Amino acid sequence: MLPDWVVDPVSPRPASGRLPSRFLARTLRESSQLVQDSVFAERAARQPGFLQRLDARVKLLSVLGLLVAASFLHHLPSLWLLAAFVGLVATFSRVGGRVLFNRVWWFLPATFVIVVLPAALSIFTPGEALATIYRTPGPIAFGPIRLPEELTVTRQGAAAAALVITRLFVGVLLAVTLTLTTRWQELLRAAHTEATAPFVLILAIMYRYLFVLLRITDNMHIAKLARTISPAPRAEERRWVGSRVAVLFARSRRLSEQVYAAMLARSYRGDPKAHVMARFGVGEGAWVALCAAVGLSMLFLDRVVLGALLW
Amino acid sequence: MVTPVFEADRLTYRYPDGRIGLREVSLSIAQGESVVILGANASGKSTLMHLLAGLAFPHERPLRAFGTELTESTLERGPFAQSFRQRVGLLFQDTEAMLFNANVWDEVAFGPLQLDLPREEVERRVQEILDLLGLMPIAQQPPHALSGGERKKVALGAMLAVSPDVLLLDEPTGGLDPRFQRWFVEFAVELREAGKTLVTTTHDLHVVDEIGDRVIVLGEDRRVAAEGRPHALLTDLHLLLSVNLVHEHSHIHDGEFHIHPHLHRHDHDH
C-alpha cells in the first residue's frame, strides 16, 4: 500500500530564491571539458594528415631529436625558423593554427613570472641596465633579507630570458604537434621499452580509468540535478563535492583492486610486457631525413652563420 | 580415477569485513563438464568464481584445482602458478575492470604476451580471436568507445587468447540484449563441444538448459541449496521460489517460461 503523500498530486514548493553554486557547476564543466579535449585530440590524430601517416615510434624519436637540436641553438632567429618548420609540418598534418596556439599559449604567463622575469633582473643576471625598477640611497633590509640598492632589467638578462622562453615555446610546440597527430595509445606503445614498461603500463591504466571516473562523476552530478528542487547553500554544495571526492576515492581503490585481479587472472606476474609494432617505410625514412636535415641546418645557421654575424 | 578440475568440501569464505561470503560449499567439477551456478543477487556466485580463479582464498577447508590446494603461496610463483593461470580463465562480471588496456588489440594481446609467446604467435592469436568474435573493425577502439555487448566480446576474446582449458564465466549475459544472449549461448555450446570446461554463473533461467550439463544452486544464505540436472532443478518450483530465482508471478512452467498477470487467480494449479 503506497503512503498517501506518494499518491497525492504534487503541490510545488515556493522557490528558495537561492542561486545555484557556480563552484560546483564550474568544477563539473571543467571535468567534462577534459573529456571533450581528449576526444578532440583523438579525432585530430585520426585525420589523414602528413604526420598521422607516420609510425609513432619514428615520430617520437624525431621529435626528441629536434628537441635536442633546439636545446643547442643559442640565437633567437634559428629558434624561430625551427618553430616555423614545426608550424608548417603541423599545417600539412591538418592541425589548425588556432588549435595549436590554444594548446601552446597556456604555459606562457606562468613561465614568464617564474622563469623569465627573475632571469632578466640584475640580481640574477648582472649586466648593462635596460630599465631601472628601483634605486635607493642606501641598502634595504627586511630582517635577514637584504635587498640591493638598485634593481634593473639587464640587456644580458633579457636576452637570456628571451632565449629560454623561445626554446621552451619550440619544445611545447613540438610536443603538442606530436600529441595532436598521434593517438594516445600509439604514443604509449611507442614509448614502451624494457626499462619504461612499468611506467607506460601505469600511464595507460591511469588514462583509461580517468574516463571511467569522470563518467561516474558526471553521472553523480546528473543524478543530483535530477533530484534538486531548489539549490542548496554554497557550504552545503562544497560539503557534497567533498563527500563525492571521498566516494570516488573509495570507488577508484576498489576498481584498482579489481583491475589487479583481472591482470593476475590473465597470467600477469609483475613484469608487464607489451607488443610494439614498428614500421619503417619510405615515408618514415623521408621524415627522418627531413628532420635530420632541418636540425643540422639550424645548428649550422646558429653556430656558424649567426655566430659570425653577431660576434 | 581422473582428478577433478575443482574440488571443495564444505569450504567457507569470509570477506575482509568479516561477513560470510560462502558457507560450507561443497562441489566437484570434472574436466569437460559445463556447470551452471545459479543464484539470486548476493548469493555468492561472483565470490565463488573469484575463489575458483585463485583470486581469493577460503578461510575454512581447502579448495583444490587439478589436485593442488589453491593458496596464496601456491599461486604466487612456481610452475603450478603459471600453469593454473594459463589453464583457468575468468570472464569478469564487470568488464570495466577487465578491460584495462588502451585499445581492443592490446586487450586481447595482453594475456599471450604475459606467457612470453613469440611475437608472431601473439599476432596470430590476436588476429584469429578478433576474426572469430567479429571484433576486427573495432580493433583500434578504446574500451570507453564500445557498447556493452562489444565490451563483453572483447573481455571474452581477452580470456580466450590465453587458450584456457577451464572458462569461468561470471554473469556473461547480464544486462545485455537478446541478440547478444543468443550469440553467447551458441558460442558457449561451441566451446563445450570443443571439450572446454565451463563454469557459468547466472540468474537468467532461459540459458541454463542450453549451456549446462549440471546446475549448482546457491541459496540466499550462501550455501549450496541444490545440485542436479538442469531440467530437474528448473521444474522444481519450490526450490526456485525458496532461493529467490522465480517469483510466484513468473516462473518456468512445463519447460516454458511462464508469467502470470500481477493480480492472478489463486486457484491456478502449479
Notes on the protein architecture:
The complex is a heterodimer of chains A (311) and B (270). Chain A has two domains: 55-192 and 276-306, no CATH class; 194-274, no CATH class. Chain A is mainly α and 311 residues long. In chain A, 22% of the residues are buried. The longest helix of chain A is centred in the C-terminal third of the chain and has 32 residues, at 234-265. Chain A has helices at 4-7, 22-45, 56-72, 76-92, 97-105, 107-120, 155-181, 184-190, 197-226, 234-265, 282-309, and strands at residues 129-135, 140-142, 145-147, 150-154. In chain A, 67% of the residues lie in helices and 6% in strands. In chain A, α2 crosses α9 (197-226). In chain A, the strands form two sheets. Chain A has a two-stranded antiparallel ribbon with strand order 1-4. In chain A, strands 2-3 form a two-stranded antiparallel ribbon. In chain A, a hairpin with a 2-residue loop joins β2 and β3. Chain A starts with a helix and ends with a helix. By secondary structure, chain B is an alpha/beta fold. Chain B has one domain (6-259): P-loop containing nucleotide triphosphate hydrolases (Rossmann fold, 3-Layer(aba) Sandwich), CATH 3.40.50.300. Chain B has helices at 45-52, 72-76, 79-87, 95-98, 104-114, 119-132, 148-160, 178-193, 205-211, 230-234, 237-242; strands at 6-14, 20-29, 34-39, 63-65, 68-69, 88-91, 166-170, 197-202, 214-218, 224-228, 250-253, 256-259. In chain B, the strands form three sheets. A six-stranded mixed sheet of chain B has the order 6-7-8-3-9-10, with helices on both faces. In chain B, strands 2-1-4-5 form a four-stranded antiparallel sheet, with helices on one face. Chain B has a two-stranded antiparallel ribbon with strand order 11-12. In chain B, α5 crosses α6 and α5 packs parallel to α7 (148-160). Chain B is globular and about 50 Å long. The chains are: A mainly alpha (311), B alpha/beta (270). The A-B interface holds A 42, 183-185, 188-189, 204-205, 207-209, 211-212, 215, 255, 258-259, 261-269, 273-275 and B 50, 53-55, 77, 81-82, 85-86, 88-90, 92, 94, 96-103, 106, 109-111, 113-116, 119, 122-123, 140, 142-144, 158-159, 162.
